[in-house]
């Protein structure tokens, strides 16, 4: 039984043993029997999500996240496309963009929540 996976081996070509070696390298050697019982090869591992890992016996959320992040990293390093429903680590997700509600310069000044102009003067800081 090899203790490492050949670097040029595609994730999709991982054997059950290669998957076990990956799990072991992440600090989770205890899942070897479950990997073999469930015939988890690389092409299967590449499609697993939280629920499937839980079914596999990976109860710890932290362990599932570690495994999913490792699979994501392998896909990235091997140029494997990330599918829309694949796990993407939160720190690597594209940032949310903010959409301005109104452009005060183009609209003649700031507006309130109802879209009415907000006109302020020195004597009347808060119009009613």
Report what the structure shows:
The chain is an all-alpha fold and about 130 residues long. It has a domain at about 10-90: Transcription Factor, Ets-1 (DNA polymerase, domain 1, Orthogonal Bundle), CATH 1.10.150. The protein is about 35% helix and about 0% strand. The protein is built from 5 helices and no strands. The relative contact order is 0.10.
* Shape designation: globular
CATH fold field value of the domain at 11-92: DNA polymerase, domain 1
Report Rg.
25 Å
Q: Structural class of the secondary elements?
A: mainly alpha
Largest sheet: none
Q: Mean pLDDT, nearest integer? A: 80
Strand content: under 5%
Strands, count? 0
Element layout with pairings:
Blueprint: H1 16-25, H2 32-37, H3 42-45, H4 50-55, H5 61-77
Which features would summarize this protein structure in a list?
128 residues, mainly alpha, DNA polymerase, domain 1, 0% strand
């Amino acid at each position: 039984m090899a203790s490492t996976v050949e670097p040029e081996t595609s994730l999709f070509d991982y054997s059950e043993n290669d998957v076990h070696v990956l799990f072991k390298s992440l600090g989770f050697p205890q899942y070897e029997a479950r990997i073999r019982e469930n015939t988890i090869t690389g092409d299967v591992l590449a499609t697993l999500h939280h629920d499937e890992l839980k079914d596999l016996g990976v109860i710890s959320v932290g362990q599932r996240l570690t495994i999913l992040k490792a699979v994501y990293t392998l896909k990235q390093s091997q140029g494997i496309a990330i599918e829309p429903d694949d796990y993407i680590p939160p720190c690597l997700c594209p940032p949310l963009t903010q959409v301005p509600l109104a452009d005060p310069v183009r609209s003649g000044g700031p507006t309130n929540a109802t879209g009415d102009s907000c006109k302020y003067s020195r004597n009347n800081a808060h119009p009613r």
